[in-house]
Fold this protein.
Amino acid sequence: MTARSKAKTSDMLPADIKHALAQKGKSYADVDRQFGLPESTASNSAKKSQSPAGEVAIAAVLGIKPSKIWPSRYDRNGKRLIPQPSANYTPKPALRKPENHEAA
């Protein structure tokens, strides 16, 4: 197991983040509103490495550094990795083209 894959497993799970927010009386939507973020930014940040602002907002509400929540997204000094490691991106499924059913 590489150091990178080992770090990946130590990221907080989105369900655990959601639970931690709920313990503080907050939801992902509350975080978005509190920090003036577009809708679903916090939720998407918990699930995928899309928005540094969402990560910072969640971390601020929880009182934890973002690098402690998502160690795979940050270097050992707490600086966000740019670009993110490819393992942090999940490919989107390809959509099938609809079949053309012509009336006979």
